[in-house]
Amino acid sequence: MSSSVLPPGQPDRIARLATGVVGGPRGRHAVTPSGRPHLLLVAALLSLGACLTLALGFLQKSHCVRFGWAVPQVYWKGCYSDLPSYAGNPGLTGGLPYDAGSALGEPVGVGVVLRLLAVFVPADGFARQQGLFVAWAVLAAVLLVVTVLATVWTCRAHPEWAAHVAFSPLVATVALVSLDLVGVALTSVAMWLWSRGRLTAAGVVFGLAVATRTYPLLVLVVLGVLALRAGALRDWARTAGVALVTAVLVVGGVSLAYGTGTLAAYQSWAAATAQLGSPWYVATLWERPIAMGVLTLLAVFGWALAVGAGALLALAAPVRPRIGEIAIVVLVLVLITGKSLPVQSSLWLVPLAAIAGLPWRDHLLWALTEVLYFVAVWLYLGGLDDAAAALPKAWYAAFLVLRLAGLVWLAAAATRQAMNRRDHGTVFDAPPIDEAAGRMAALPDAVVVRYEQ
């Protein structure tokens, strides 16, 4: 095998041990005659692995599928999902769920997907809840495979990095909790299109992703900062402009048909107090809640801090960082300063860890804190209905802080990797060029920030 091709398990120790389960490092039949990784083979194997990981998640939630999502059993069994709560929305039986009095409280993209799922499920009752959840599980498998494929084709020199998506513990725990995977898949596809220089198509898909969640905006900002360093702002402006127009057309078009109900998700965020998972919720636990206006300012400050920190890292790193590295830092800062931090929010970081090429050690340490919090939050909520069996609020606060520490660890790992890369060296034997950067990868630096000690 060519020395330029790295087996999946080298030099990452954890990956090297894991490949032993399936026969060891990649051999000569797993590469093309030119010595490049065989993308189709890697994509097929990782897609199968992703489906198996998601199947574990479905199995973990099988109690509720069989017996229902009644409180508090849904918490004790750890099988909560948003999908059954949508089943009774009258808007899913006709058009979109944004009519006055039945506004979904979710962005337009989520409402469209729910309406499509509702076509294939029974009309009412428990069977409708079951049907909606199972339909989402099937669609989630498709979206997860799409995310894996997009990641493989984005990281063509190291397609095995997509294993971060296929085998992440978060896929098993939270992929079926909500419809966030729709936005995650769209963002991954947009990143693949950007990496191939398809700027307009990338903008369209980014716009669709923004219509499902606001997090893709952060990825677009990261692309803009790195485009500034590479002198490629014209390319970025084209993609960002198309994304903005697409998002406005989608949200605006639905708003014209159904009124301001399409803005309910954003209005509810503005009016929300501290919610589960947020660091500000610790004050609520001890009956000293932070005022809503102050929380809104803190969340807005978090976005400003995230963009500023991402820009500084992107422009000051010795070598131009990878998109995934900066995006992880920016998204983590937004998450840990927001009004809420639901368990499914961390799913957005999984494909970013893949395209950043982070070591599995950092991924698994972070995922461990996520899984521990996943268990703790349901025990805490279940205890609200049964004080005798409750997880004490002090313990819940401890697991909440542990999760926040895990997120900070992941951001620190991405920062360390970006700052330790040098002009004539590599980190973890990974190529210094970021394949996800697309046209920017071949451009010299145009704007760099240097500081004197």
Q: How many strands, what sense, and barrel or not for the largest sheet? A: none
The beta-strand count equals: 0
Counting helices, strands and paired strands, the structural category is mainly alpha
- Indicate the low-confidence ranges by residue numbers: 1-10, 424-431
* Average pLDDT rating: 88
Proportion of residues in β-strands: under 5%
Order of helices and strands: HHHHHHHHHHHHHHHHHHHH
Please report the number of helical segments. Answer: 20
Terminal CA distance reads: 45 Å
The helix fraction, in percent, is 55-70%
Radius of gyration: 22 Å
**Shape, principal axes of CA atoms:** globular
Written overview of the protein:
It is globular and about 60 Å long. It has 453 residues and is mostly helical. The model is unreliable at 1-10 and 424-431 (pLDDT under 50). The chain has helices spanning 13-19, 39-60, 62-67, 73-76, 83-86, 108-118, 125-154, 163-166, 169-174, 180-195, 199-210, 215-230, 233-258, 264-270, 281-285, 292-316, 323-337, 349-356, 360-383, 393-420. Helix 7 packs parallel to helix 10, helix 16 runs antiparallel to helix 17 (323-337) and helix 17 packs antiparallel against helix 20 (393-420).
